Amino acid sequence: MDVFTENALAGKVVFVAGASSGINLEIARHFAIHGAKVSIVSRDETRIASAAASIAAAGYTAIGFAADVREFAAVDAALQQTHAQFGPIDIVISGAAGNFIAPASELSSNGFKTVVDIDLNGTFHVLRASYRYLNRPGASLISITAPQGTNPMMYQAHACAAKAGINMLTKCLAMEWGPEGIRVNAISPGPIADTEGMRRLAATPESEARFKARLALRDYGTTKDIADTALFLASDNARYVTGAIVECDGGCKLGDASRMEAAEYAIGS
Ligand code: NAP
Ligand code: COA
User: pLDDT value at position 5?
Assistant: First the structure.
């Protein structure tokens, strides 16, 4: 059951960065279904045009622009065109990211820098550039972080450092921009099925099974789970929520004890 009406975001203007595929595309599609006009960006002109066309083909309002979030001017140009076509922007999602598995001892300076540039600097660019185009008071900004932002993970020093930075950036902007009626939150998704992120982290059925065994809910989430969380945070129902890192993660960060199977307690031995 969808607790939000189809018109929950009627008249709202939404900008989603990193939305040619996966979680962010689903957020854009979900918001369009709920009545918003959506503007989406990613690096690849063909992929982003096709993503925007897929939303528009279903009868919703969507436009797409190619922009690399590492370039402030490119992000600003996309926001400016969005503002010109749709008017002041109500909701911004910053979700562009890159990740790969690499031991820190083998990670080049450019490999580390590339992920920090896309995830952390890119998020600063998207949120900072959007500031002048926002419909305030009432604007809602959402960064997409990850469990890596609070829990260290092997072979992901680059992504962990970048996502930790996003968490702190989100809280700082929430403090600075709150007085203007701008809310800034982050969503921390757990492992999400059928995404590029999980194809990179759990490439085989065996590694997928090991991931699932470590989740309190024992299963991957869906892109719609994250889109529903984003819909709540973007809506007026979340009008008093700001500076929050909202976990929609199947309990993947709960303590080690929660991962113990009954037999591992060795009761009575
Ligand atoms: P995805 O499909 O690869 O999405 C990443 C998006 O970012 C793509 O649209 C990509 O499009 C875009 N992008 C990459 N570099 C960019 C750049 N420099 N400038 C602009 N756009 C760029 O991956 P996903 O798995 O759905 O992940 C989406 C978000 O959720 C990420 O922030 C990720 O960290 C987070 N997350 C995912 C999971 C998961 O289980 N998948 C778990 C926790 C957090 P182009 O290639 O067209 O540029
Ligand atoms: N292991 C170690 N280093 C790697 C790597 C890997 N698997 N993949 C890339 N790198 C390094 C490269 O070697 C390069 O460093 P170098 O110049 O010292 O050799 C550096 O990272 C940049 O690589 P490049 O391919 O030029 O970057 P890009 O900007 O074209 O692409 C990536 C960015 C690397 C993050 C790419 O994987 C990407 O586009 N990802 C987007 C999709 C994604 O990751 N989705 C999941 C989201 S969580």
Answer: 82
Residue 108 beta carbon below 6 angstroms from any ligand 2 atom: yes
What global pTM score does this model have? 0.97
* pLDDT tens sequence across 9-56: 999 999 999 999 999 999 999 999 999 999 999 999 999 999 999 999
Q: Which atom of ligand 1 is nearest to the CA of 144?
A: 32
Task: Tell me which residue has its CA closest to atom 33 in ligand 1.
Answer: 97
Structural domains of the chain, with CATH: 13-266 (3.40.50.720)
Instruction: Report DSSP letters for 158-211, one per residue.
Output: HHHHHHHHHHHHHHHHHHHHGGGT-EEEEEEE--BTT-HHHHHH--SHHHHHHH
What does the mean pLDDT of the chain come to?
95
Helices (H), the chain: 22-33, 45-57, 72-86, 109-116, 122-130, 157-177, 196-201, 205-213, 223-234
Q: Is 45 in the pocket of ligand 1 (CB under 6 A)?
A: no
Binding site membership of 197 for ligand 1 (Cβ less than 6 Å) = yes
